[in-house]
Amino acid sequence: MLLPLATEPYTAPTDRDMRPSERREFVRAHRTCVFGYRRRNDGPAMSIVYYIPTGTDELLVSTMADRGKARIVERDGKVSLCVLDERWPFAYLQVYADATIERDRDLVVDVMMAVAGRMSGEPLGKEARPYVTEMSERENRVVIRCRPYASYAQPPRHLYRNNQSEEVTHWVSGLVAWDADDPA
Fold first, then answer.
1. Distance of CA 40 to the CA centre of its chain
2. What percentage of the chain carries pLDDT values higher than 90?
3. Who's near 78: CB < 8 A, 6+ residues apart?
4. pLDDT tens digit string along 93-147?
5. How is the chain split into domains, by residue range?
6. Is 102 helix (H, G, I), strand (E, B) or coil?
């Protein structure tokens, strides 16, 4: 089940690290990320994409089968998604995932329709499905299914005025298993 776009993005706490359940909620409530993957040579490849969360906490990304993202996932299967908060000051959550390629045409079209809804801020009507289906075939679209296994959070930080006497706090986050329970 594809989750709808949240009516309000999750706001990360500014006084502490996010709990595991808050990290998952942050990902469910946002829509854009920097999609990263390893390259054989050079540094990691990165591109900004829309993603669709599912009811089972998978993250789905639409891409063309001939693009680097799809080719590398078939070869490697390890990706990272840096989920972006769209509000200032920015917070982000790095998600590490195992990824596979899905070619099921209905799923591909469902994800493309959901992405269009996230891009525009409102769902596409059913009358758009034939056009999206034709586009998915013409562009040879696939879905990258990302199964998160860990996350790393960065809190929002910002100086609201140039007053060096104000203290900006920082702390160290760490990798947290995706399915971890919140501490008691």
1. 23
2. 68
3. 37, 38, 96, 97, 98, 99
4. 999 999 999 999 999 999 999 999 999 988 999 999 999 999 999 999 999 999 9
5. 20-155
6. strand
Confidence tier at 156 by pLDDT (50, 70, 90): low
Tokens of 47: 């591109």
Are 101 and 73 within 8 A, CB to CB?
A: yes
Cα–Cα distance for residue pair 136/129, rounded to 1 Å: 10
What is the CATH topology of the domain spanning 20-155? Pnp Oxidase; Chain A (2.30.110)
Q: How far is CA 124 from CA 3, 53, 134, 135, 144, in A?
A: 14, 17, 15, 15, 21
- H helices of 55-104, where? 68-75
- Cis peptide bond prior to 89, omega within 30° of 0: yes
Rounded Cα distance, 129 and 112, in Å = 9
